[in-house]
Specification:
five-stranded mixed β-sheet, single chain, mainly beta, 951 residues, globular
């Protein structure tokens, strides 16, 4: 039935397209460019020939094209929200292209006889005009708007958009959640080309890898059209890079700052230079940015359990929740982010131009971690009863570091790179518009010579486990210490292990896209296709080092570093203590056989190594038709065929549990998705509209989930297993949105959306009952990705952007920016460790409440903004039962930034991030049971911005 309905829709579109064609004779083409007074492109301007009801909307480069225009003289009208209409008389000649160049000048916005002075086309104006003239449901953020918030990377900028929340890593927004759907269920593209992921376990895009300075605008498509990639269940984020200006432009930023957690500096700088040849045909732009951030985090983690072995029966019994394992971690991080871009374009003639866009992002993440771990914690019972009177366990102290060389600098160095090279063109052949691009993209993550040294303490002087003082009076801040301090003196620790590992993950992407567009009587017919080939591989190794002398026998005699800090942000009760100095660890020569016996431990890495290849072939047809003066229809059909080949490793063990070889296994999978879509836009007035969308989207499984592998983690009594038989997740989506745009450049919008999801993927946790998965693995927890049955999401969205110009005096310089999203979800087919279906869960990663707000003040010389971002708690990872479920806690960020204008070219800026000192926090089962809390402190920056324009 579903395929029959799809066929009917396809036939309807085909008939509508064919009947909509008219005979064009003696026609020409109009091409134009709209800029502001500084030569900066103006996107989203409505360009029309009202006499014949034809027109176009300028793209992100300020360009427009109107084909099949009958020969004659016309008045070309440009409408731009917040500015007076601009008109120009033009002559269209047969088989010729008429070139038009228009400039929108800054000046006054007339509103109710009050003239509000403006100083340039604002970023808000550009974004809202583009958003207003799109047929599908989108949110657009321009580079000027990004600059109003203190956001160093694109992830922090995107979180300001309605319906979006971000997962953080070391205090920076990294993984994007759109309308409550997991990061791997959304797509992120750069100039329309999917960005590859450097993550080994998933398809997530590292949003903190791309500096915000490198992006011209951000477009979030919440309802995709048939000419867009369909793997976007929550939505698609398209990052559009800067293009060559119409005249000379030089822009530079230099700044510094302070991280309060470490009292160490921040350095940042950027430049952009571009120009165009005298005949305006050739344009070029080069830009670069660097950000050097020396910071850290204070972290506490805990794993809770509510089961214990009864001393009376020897069976498991339910007890009051207690901590089975807990960490105190101190991170010291230096993150150096560099980005380079070179963009070229050449106008061959009036109807043909080509362009080259390139970007290279390179991030070095140097990290030292000092970890104090209390583990194997067990309750102590009153003799002859099941009453708990105390706890006992083990203690470990671990240092993470790396080689002492110019790159690693005694730290774990994570080298992440993402690069994209796109060559494309736009052409007009009579009535046919044709655009294309081919792109090469790659992402990689390399972690070489990552070193660990760990000491452990298992017994007190009497030979018993270490007695622990466990304070659970406040389960949000649980504290563990040795009951007897002399039991845990450093000289009593023994070496557990010294290890070194290398990790490398790489993903390569090749894309080719072609789009064709023909005019119809009241719209257009567009069709085209995409070919995308992708390869991804992970290649890790792991070594254990056994010392051949007594150097490491006495922990207290080694070079140590004390990381106890009375200002530890989680609380002064958390005493980190002493660890091996990473400088000593970095100087060790692991290749000296007289000092170490080096052994490869294959079962630590072989199970996680894999190769994956994915080919996607897509085609679409789409028609845009103006049914009447107020109602516009966009309908179409997209077909995507996916072919995947994955190769993984099954690690084999003998009867004693020792490594007994590896079996390489390859699996193939393929599927085809037919994805119809329909969009309607009804304009009540020039500035008010309602939009409806019915779309169908997919999300492909993570590569590692598809890999046929088995990985046994004996220390944690866990087994990870791949599932090559996973189906892609599909969703049918409905959206309804109403918008009212204000003449003074603002918007009030509200809408609802619903998603019906099939075959969502979740990790099924179960327990082995025998040794069929490996020797001595009975009772191990297994984790395997499986398809759930179905799920649904219902949501509400509200947004308001408004200049408060109706207020008297200086108050009219205030502006308000708020948006709110509410979500509710349900999921069927999630099973617990016993195989029973659970009915107590929302769909993972669906935050029920999200809010953004900012209050700004702007006059000719000063600008200031206080910004807030809130997202509610949600299920992040499903456990074997409700007690084990992990939740991402609610978070509230407050930021402030200000700018002072010295002259038209030079500004001073100052930013304060994370005023609330918001930690990253997870909890287990209930909100008061902390699983992880990681604090980052505040970040303060100050600097100069210089911008020079010459036309």
């Amino acid at each position: 039935m579903k395929q029959l309905n799809t066929l009917r829709l396809f036939l309807f579109i085909a008939v509508l397209s064919l009947t909509a064609f008219q005979t064009f004779s003696q026609t020409g083409t109009i091409q134009g460019l709209i800029t502001d007074e500084n030569g900066i492109y103006v996107p989203g301007a409505s360009v029309s020939l009202e006499a014949i009801k034809k027109g176009d909307v300028t793209n992100f480069d300020g360009k427009f094209t109107i084909v099949a225009v009958p020969v004659g003289t016309y008045t070309l009208k440009v409408t731009y929200l917040g500015y007076k209409d601009v008109e120009q008389s033009i002559i269209v000649k047969q088989n010729q292209t008429t070139k038009v160049s228009l400039q929108l000048k800054s000046g006054g916005i007339e509103l109710n006889e009050i003239q509000i002075k403006t100083y340039a086309l604002s970023g808000q104006s550009k974004a809202l005009n583009k958003q207003k003239n799109n047929i599908n449901i989108t949110n657009v953020v321009s580079t000027d708007q990004i600059g109003k918030f203190p956001d160093a990377n694109i992830g922090d900028a995107v979180k300001r958009i309605p319906g979006i929340t971000m997962q953080v890593d070391q205090g920076e927004a990294r993984n994007i959640i759109i309308r409550g759907l997991s990061p791997q269920l959304n797509s992120v593209t750069l100039n329309g080309s999917r960005i590859p992921s450097a993550e080994g376990d998933n398809r997530n895009i590292q949003m903190d890898l791309i500096p915000s300075d490198m992006i011209q605008s951000i477009q979030v498509n919440k309802a995709v059209t048939p000419d867009m990639e369909a793997d976007a269940l929550g939505g698609s984020v398209n990052l559009i890079t800067r293009t060559a200006p119409q005249g000379f432009r030089l822009s530079a930023t230099a700044g510094s700052g302070l991280n309060t957690i470490t009292d160490k500096r921040i350095l940042n700088g950027s430049f952009l230079v571009g120009n165009r040849s005298k005949n305006k045909k050739f344009g070029w732009m080069i830009s670069a940015t660097v950000n050097d951030n020396d910071f850290g985090s204070d972290n506490v983690e805990a794993e809770w359990i509510d089961q214990a072995v009864s001393p009376l029966t020897g069976n498991d019994i339910t007890v009051s929740p207690y901590i089975a394992e807990s960490d105190i971690r101190t991170y010291l991080v230096q993150r150096v982010r560099r980005s380079f871009s070179a963009n070229l374009d050449y106008q061959i003639n009036d109807n043909n131009n080509i362009y080259l866009k390139t970007m290279y992002n390179w991030r070095d993440d140097r990290e030292n971690r000092y970890r104090l771990r209390y583990r194997s914690i067990e309750p102590i019972f009153t003799s002859g009863t099941d009453q708990i009177i105390g706890y006992q366990g083990e203690i470990r102290r671990q240092t993470k570091g790396g080689l002492n060389n110019d790159r690693n600098k005694n730290t774990r160095l994570e080298d992440q790179r993402m690069q994209n090279y796109t060559l494309g063109g736009k052409h007009v052949f009579g009535k046919l518009e044709f655009d294309w691009f081919g792109s090469l993209a790659a992402a990689s993550e390399e972690r070489l010579n990552e070193r660990y040294i760990e000491y452990e303490l298992k017994e007190n002087p009497a030979g018993d486990p270490i007695r622990l003082q466990v304070n659970l009076n406040n389960t949000r801040f649980p504290v563990i210490n040795p009951s007897v301090a002399t039991d845990a003196t450093l000289s009593r620790y023994s070496l557990k292990e010294i290890t070194e590992e290398n990790q490398f993950t790489e993903e390569n992407d090749v894309n080719f896209v072609a789009n064709f567009k023909l005019p119809t009587k009241k719209g257009s017919l567009k069709f085209g296709g995409r070919i995308r080939t992708k390869s991804k591989d992970r290649n890790n190794d792991f070594f254990e080092l056994a010392p051949t002398n007594a150097t490491f026998d006495d922990f207290s005699a080694l070079p140590l570093i004390d990381k106890t800090d009375t200002n530890f942000l989680a609380g002064s009760s958390y005493a980190a203590g002493q660890y091996v100095d990473p400088a000593f660890l970095g100087d060790l020569n692991f290749n000296d056989a007289s000092l170490f016996d080096k052994e490869s431990v294959v079962d630590e890495f072989l199970g996680g190594n894999y190769d994956a290849k994915e080919d996607v072939f897509a085609g679409y047809v789409m028609v845009t038709h103006k049914l009447n003066d107020k109602l516009t229809l966009l309908g179409g059909l997209r077909l995507e065929t996916t072919k995947i080949v994955t190769t993984g490793n099954i690690v084999n063990y003998d009867v004693n549990g020792d490594f007994d070889g590896v079996t390489s296994t390859t699996e193939n999978n393929s599927y085809t998705n037919i994805l119809p879509g329909l969009h309607l836009k009804y304009d009540f007035t020039k500035n008010s509209s309602v939009r409806f969308a019915w779309t169908n989207t997919i999300a492909r499984p993570n590569y590692i989930d598809l890999v046929p592998f088995r990985n046994i983690i004996r220390e944690d009594a866990e087994i990870e297993i791949g599932n090559p038989d996973l189906n892609p997740t599909t969703s049918m989506n409905f959206d309804l949105l109403g918008e009212q745009y204000f003449k003074n450049v603002g918007i009030l919008s509200g809408g609802i959306f619903y998603k019906k999801i099939d075959n969502f993927i979740y990790p099924l946790v179960s327990q082995t009952t025998d040794d069929s998965l490996g020797a001595n693995t009975t009772g191990f927890d297994t984790k395997r990705p499986v398809n759930g049955d179905d799920a649904s999401i219902f949501g509400l969205e509200f947004a308001l952007q408004r200049q408060l110009d109706f207020l008297p005096g200086f108050l009219k310089n205030f502006s308000l920016y708020v948006n709110y999203t509410y979500l509710t979800s349900s999921a069927n087919g999630i099973r617990n460790e016993d195989g029973d279906e659970r009915n107590d869960l929302d769909l993972p990663n669906t935050a029920p409440n999200m809010f953004n707000g900012s209050l700004g003040y702007t006059n000719k010389f000063f600008s200031g903004r206080l910004s807030a971002n809130f997202s509610d708690s949600y299920v992040d990872e499903i456990g074997g039962n409700a007690f084990e479920d992990r939740y991402y806690d609610k978070q509230f960020f407050l930021d402030f930034n200000t700018t002072f204008t010295i002259n038209k070219n030079l500004r001073i800026y100052a930013d304060v991030n994370n005023i609330t000192d918001q930690p990253l926090r997870y909890f287990q089962g209930v909100s008061d049971r902390t699983m992880q809390m990681e604090y980052y402190g505040r970040r303060i920056t100050l600097g100069l911005k210089y911008d020079l324009f010459k036309k």
